[in-house]
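TASK: fixed-backbone design
INPUT:
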């Protein structure tokens, strides 16, 4: 029986509950306690050492994890933790302690799995962690959530996660407390569980100290000092520490700590109110009650020392600490419990666990938590200062990340890279605008609710919009543009002129895809696609990253030869496509370089690379006097593509555009209309004939108007991102951040012809690529065309689906979409040769082409035809220039080329 405290409604509960203060274990620690024994019997320092290799700012569970991993690697005596208050006194003491394996990406799954391994190892050593492998149960109230669970079940094969789909009745068996009348089913993950973050923090600290780590409490950081772009020292209240590395693990203080250096390190975080509801001890409560997440109700609960601990993520959160000042003391940081705000979650808790109405309730704790602008963790080296590392933004579930993130930061310090690809979590995915406090306050209202939201494809934020807009934005908007946002930039995803007739839609429109099947924008994109293939399409490419690189002498050429795996020493006016590899041969950047002058290049890179690629270049200049200027915001980029694009542009310029004078993959400066100084590149990034015009912003509207007017007789149509994305998928074009990452090499994705091993400069990654060329690749980039799949009825492939060869798992998809020419679902992805022991063996063309393939979508396997080369798609207006270029595996082997038919 649950212990009873009768109440008529939740509105009367607050006055009956005993709202207790934060745990007295931590509140009573004062500065007078330093230089004495803490609760675990470990001595804490008052004065920090004068020198260390690594200084960690923040004594919460994340800082403790980094210190533990460093100590395990032999750097214990060279590592110092500085904490402004008491160890574990930030958000660690009150966190929910939920430990979950399933995350949105495979990289995050790996980090979570390493965290569970760490918790188990600490527990096996007899250290207190509170670890309990009670499993987790996710509930679904609607069909889309069940579809998502089926997708997760499919993904689990490749991600190594044990899981099971359940009926509503089976959910009730797993947790008898549940009311399941409105539940369609569930998802059971037995290896999940819960832990006590405070105990874990204390155990990690004590073990770290045993291995030599110095811990200094009540010693806030006052300044972070750099010299020549690298960390030099850290000043604290009690003294300066000279160091080589600084790790910002300061939780929701991380943004403030970032402002203590010159230049400022941007750590975009903002705190929001977050609630934890605690009952008193409930008689007979099973200690192995699973962690339950009612995702559609935005709530969770778990057993906690005989009690129920529960909470959730409301759809509209309340920003905390609006002034930007975060109090130092725990008492001041804990915010008043706002029952009017919390009641939305409380209603759902009572609905899911009706017996809570009869529970004796102890307290409602409002302990703010920090969230990043995209609801992801923030990791990696800062772009502003080398050896300044960051591990924050864990959005209440830091305990799920503690082992993996600690290991990753340790690896970066010791080896210069992480064994897990962190590109989607790297701090360099942000710009300065993301660190704007007003932007963060706006965005943090929306972000917490996404934590349990349905992960529909192409999710868009509704806050922080209309920030970066090209000069042609109003014109595109008036033509029915429906916008997506990337790096704060508004770009059309598709065009819906029909919506312009609705008075409510005249304002700024944000795209959405709230389905796992055929999207509502399918027909709009079809029209745009057809124009790009058979007429003329006009697309706004302004969001692409644009850098100018130049030098007085040949320094820029030598520098780029070292950075790039392709040969950049090409004639002036040429464009080359190249990767920038790391020392393992993986892609740090994938870009086009136009040689404007002997010692002047313009780089075009993916939008999401704007911070990252510039940081990578500056880090690897090796003292060369090369100027690197971000000119992204100086130019409006308009792409005109399609078989009539040359005819259209020829009407607006005096320059001869014939293939002989202006061939494919070359650059010219043009006059268009009455405007001059336009950098024109004969390429489209989609495989179609066309040009990208980089127009000085003051001329943008004029050039756009001329193109649009002149294009009417050619049937010109606007084309959004979804249409150009489909074009490149059909043409088998890989894209950085979706198909390519820091662990993918050119040899694996069919781009070995872009790697020039015979250059006179030893480029980064050359040795690793030579070794891979000698030994063979362990995976291969392929294109798969789904058969027996009805796009009108069946669920679509949206990426990360498992690929099967001859009935056995062999890889996963990366980018997917509907091919309007193929009239099929098209999946790009990587195929491995996994033996019976689970070890990847060498992959060859013959191996790939000799298999029968299937792609599994939400539990259903569809037969697929494999392609190793960029296909030549049929068109009414064939063009030799366009068809001669193959983005993947440049020279086709007819024996391995499969027709799309």
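OUTPUT:
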């Amino acid at each position: 029986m649950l212990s009873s405290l009768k109440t008529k409604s939740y509105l009367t509960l607050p006055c009956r509950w005993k709202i207790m203060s934060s745990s007295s274990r931590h509140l009573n620690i004062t500065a007078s306690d330093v230089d004495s024994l803490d609760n675990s019997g470990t001595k804490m320092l008052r004065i920090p050492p004068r020198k260390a290799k690594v200084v960690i700012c923040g004594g919460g569970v994340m800082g403790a994890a980094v210190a533990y991993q460093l100590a395990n690697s032999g750097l214990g005596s060279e590592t110092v933790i500085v904490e402004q208050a008491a160890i574990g006194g930030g958000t660690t003491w009150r966190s929910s302690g939920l430990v979950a394996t399933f995350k949105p990406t495979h990289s995050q799954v790996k980090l979570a799995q390493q965290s569970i391994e760490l918790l188990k190892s600490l527990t096996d050593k007899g250290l207190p962690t509170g670890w309990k492998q009670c499993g987790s149960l996710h509930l679904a109230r609607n069909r889309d959530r069940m579809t998502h669970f089926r997708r997760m079940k499919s993904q689990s094969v490749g991600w190594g996660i044990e899981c099971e789909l359940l009926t509503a009745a089976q959910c009730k068996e797993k947790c008898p407390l549940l009311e399941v009348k409105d539940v369609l089913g569930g998802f059971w993950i037995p290896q999940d569980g819960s832990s006590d973050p405070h105990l874990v923090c204390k155990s990690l600290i004590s073990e770290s100290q045993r291995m030599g780590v110095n811990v200094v409490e009540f010693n806030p950081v006052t300044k972070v000092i750099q010299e020549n772009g690298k960390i030099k020292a850290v000043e604290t209240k009690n003294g300066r520490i000279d160091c080589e590395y600084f790790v910002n693990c300061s939780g929701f203080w991380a943004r403030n700590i970032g402002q203590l250096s010159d230049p400022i390190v941007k750590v975009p975080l903002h705190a929001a109110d977050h609630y934890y509801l605690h009952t008193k001890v409930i008689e007979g409560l099973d200690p192995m009650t699973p962690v339950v997440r009612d995702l559609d109700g935005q709530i969770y609960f778990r057993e906690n020392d005989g009690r129920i601990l529960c909470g959730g993520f409301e759809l509209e959160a309340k920003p905390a600490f609006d002034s930007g000042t975060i109090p130092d003391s725990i008492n001041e940081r804990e915010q008043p419990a706002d029952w009017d705000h919390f009641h939305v979650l409380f209603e759902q808790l009572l609905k899911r666990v009706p017996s809570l109405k009869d529970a004796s309730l102890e307290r409602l704790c409002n302990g703010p938590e920090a969230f990043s602008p995209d609801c992801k963790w923030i990791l990696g080296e800062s772009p502003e200062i080398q050896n300044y590392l960051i591990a924050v933004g864990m959005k209440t579930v830091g305990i799920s990340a503690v082992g993996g993130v600690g290991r990753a930061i340790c690896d970066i310090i010791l080896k210069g890279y992480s064994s897990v690809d962190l590109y989607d979590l790297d701090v360099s995915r942000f710009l300065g605008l993301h660190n704007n406090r007003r932007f963060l306050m706006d965005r943090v209202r929306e972000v917490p609710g996404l934590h349990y939201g349905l992960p529909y494809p192409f999710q868009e934020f509704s806050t922080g919009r209309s920030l970066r807009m090209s000069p042609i934005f109003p014109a595109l908007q008036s033509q029915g543009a429906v916008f997506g946002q990337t790096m704060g930039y508004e770009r059309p995803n598709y065009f819906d002129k029909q919506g312009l007739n609705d008075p409510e839609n005249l304002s700024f429109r944000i795209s959405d895809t709230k389905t796992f099947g055929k999207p509502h924008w399918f027909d709009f994109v079809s029209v745009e696609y057809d124009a790009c293939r058979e007429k003329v399409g006009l697309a706004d490419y302004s969001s692409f990253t644009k850098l100018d690189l130049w030098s007085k002498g040949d320094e820029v050429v030598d520098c780029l030869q070292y950075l790039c795996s392709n040969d950049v020493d090409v004639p002036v006016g040429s464009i080359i496509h190249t990767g920038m590899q790391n020392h393992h041969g993986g892609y740090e950047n994938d870009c086009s370089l136009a040689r404007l002058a002997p010692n002047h290049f313009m780089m075009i890179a993916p939008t999401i690379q704007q911070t990252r690629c510039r940081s990578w270049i500056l880090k690897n200049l090796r003292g060369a006097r090369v100027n690197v200027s971000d000119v992204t915001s100086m130019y409006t980029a308009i792409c005109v593509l399609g078989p009539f694009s040359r005819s259209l542009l020829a009407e607006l310029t005096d320059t001869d555009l014939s293939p002989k004078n202006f061939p494919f993959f070359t650059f010219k400066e043009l006059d268009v209309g009455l405007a001059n100084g336009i950098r024109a590149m004969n390429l489209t990034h989609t495989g179609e004939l066309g040009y990208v015009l980089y127009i000085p912003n003051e001329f943008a509207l004029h050039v756009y108007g001329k193109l649009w007017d002149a294009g009417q007789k050619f049937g010109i149509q606007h084309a959004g991102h979804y249409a150009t994305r489909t074009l490149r998928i059909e043409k088998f074009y890989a894209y950085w951040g979706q198909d390519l990452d820091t662990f993918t090499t050119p040899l694996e994705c069919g781009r070995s012809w872009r790697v020039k091993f015979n250059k006179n400069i030893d480029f980064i990654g050359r040795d690793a690529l030579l070794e891979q060329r000698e030994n063979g690749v362990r995976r291969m980039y392929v294109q798969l065309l789904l058969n027996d799949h009805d796009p009108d009825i069946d669920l679509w492939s949206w990426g990360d689906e498992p690929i099967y060869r001859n009935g056995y798992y062999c890889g996963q998809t990366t980018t997917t979409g509907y091919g309007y020419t193929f009239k099929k679902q098209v999946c790009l992805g990587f195929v491995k040769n996994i033996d019976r022991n689970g070890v990847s063996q060498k992959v060859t063309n013959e191996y790939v082409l000799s298999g029968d393939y299937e792609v599994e979508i939400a539990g259903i396997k569809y037969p697929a035809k494999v392609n190793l080369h960029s296909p030549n798609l049929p068109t009414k207006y064939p063009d030799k220039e366009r068809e001669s270029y193959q983005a993947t595996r440049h020279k086709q082997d007819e024996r391995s080329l499969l027709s799309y038919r």
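COMMENT: The chain has 23 helices and 41 strands.
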